[in-house]
Recover the amino acids of this structure.
C-alpha cells in the first residue's frame, strides 16, 4: 500500500474518532443517570479530587429511594421525604437484588425534583447542587463511590437521587447474579448500560 494512502487512512480514522467522541459528549450515554455521574466526576476533578466509582447497586438503591418519595415534590424543587433507615435494608436492597451482607454505608445523599424533565447538566446545577452545602457533599474527599437514579412521568414531576458511600471500592452494594440484580421496571439508574424508561 502506498505510504501517502496509509497516512490519509490514519488521518481519516483519527478525524472519525474525534467526531464520534464529540457526538458522545454532546448526546451523552443514553442513560441520564450515567451522564450525571460523569458530570459529578468532572466537577470533582476540577477540585483535584479523585473520580468516584459508579456503583450500580447503590444506583438501584437510589432508584428505590425516589420511587418511595414520588408525590413529595415541593414548589421549590426539593423532596419532602425521609424513608426509614430500615427501608434501605428491608425493602430497597431486596427489591434491587443487593446482597445483604454487602450493604454498606451511605455517606451522603442529594435528592431533588422538577416539574418537567431537564438534561443532566441542568439537573446538576439547578436542581441538585444549588448551594454550598450540597456542593460540599459532591466534593467530600471521603466518598469512594456514587449511585444515581432518575424517575418521572410524562406529566412530571421528575425525581433525581444521588447516593454516596465511603466504603472500599467494589466491596459494597453488590448485585446478585453476577452483578445483574433484579430488573427494574421503572426509572433508570447509573452503573448500567441499560437505557431504562425513565419517562413513564
Amino acid at each position: 500500500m502506498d505510504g501517502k494512502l496509509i497516512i490519509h487512512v490514519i488521518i481519516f480514522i483519527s478525524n472519525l474518532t474525534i467526531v464520534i467522541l464529540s457526538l458522545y459528549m454532546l448526546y451523552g450515554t443514553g442513560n441520564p443517570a450515567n451522564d450525571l455521574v460523569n458530570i459529578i466526576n468532572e466537577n470533582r476533578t476540577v477540585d483535584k479530587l479523585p473520580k468516584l466509582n459508579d456503583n450500580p447497586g447503590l444506583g438501584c438503591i437510589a432508584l428505590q429511594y425516589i420511587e418511595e418519595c414520588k408525590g413529595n415534590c415541593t414548589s421549590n424543587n426539593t423532596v419532602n421525604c425521609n424513608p426509614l433507615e430500615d427501608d434501605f435494608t428491608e425493602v430497597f436492597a431486596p427489591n434491587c437484588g443487593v446482597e445483604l451482607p454487602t450493604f454498606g454505608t451511605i455517606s451522603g445523599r442529594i435528592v431533588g425534583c422538577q416539574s418537567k424533565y431537564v438534561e443532566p447538566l441542568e439537573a446538576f446545577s439547578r436542581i441538585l447542587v444549588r448551594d454550598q452545602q450540597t456542593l460540599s457533599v459532591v466534593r467530600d474527599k471521603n466518598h469512594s463511590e456514587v449511585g444515581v437514579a432518575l424517575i418521572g412521568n410524562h406529566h412530571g414531576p421528575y425525581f433525581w437521587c444521588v447516593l454516596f458511600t465511603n466504603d472500599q471500592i467494589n466491596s459494597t452494594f453488590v448485585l446478585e447474579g453476577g452483578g445483574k440484580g433484579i430488573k427494574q421496571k421503572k426509572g433508570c439508574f447509573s452503573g448500567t448500560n441499560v437505557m431504562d424508561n425513565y419517562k413513564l
